[in-house]
Amino acid sequence: MIRIALYQPDIPQNTGAMMRLAACMGVGLDVIEPTAFPWDERKIRRGALDYIDHIDLTRHGDWTAFLKHYENQNRRIVLMTTKGAIPYTAHEFRADDILLAGSESSGVPDHVHDAADSRIIIPMRPGLRSLNVVNATSMILGEALRQTGQI
Length: 151
What we know:
Layout: E1 3-7, H1 12-25, E2 28-32, H2 41-48, E3 57-60, H3 63-70, E4 77-80, E5 86-87, E6 98-101, H4 110-115, E7 118-121, H5 133-148
Parallel strand pairs: 1-2, 1-6, 2-3, 4-6, 4-7, 5-7
Helix pairs in contact: 1-2, 1-5
């Protein structure tokens, strides 16, 4: 099963919306801490609604714990980034990929960027920086699920 991973998210409402996306699409969700906000389930539920009870959620204390959790599982980390070179529609997804999204304010640090197995982008109009993290993840997840026959 494809999973979504959030690297040190900044905005609790986006985390809640990502939980809702994961629940509706039947994929797992990893949150790589620390978060920039106190983990307040009440605030997160505002975005996730009652969907939070329908997801496979794993919280990791840090990047190292996340990597350790998935070592020896032969999963690829596919970084969704504005600094990638491969358009997401040209990437060949696998059914066990982990789609990694960086924090809303700063993306991921270089060591995380370098650890990714691939780095994909959403082509956009020149001069514009990025989409909302949940919108971008939704687009890419839809393509990954389509390619792998999981929808």
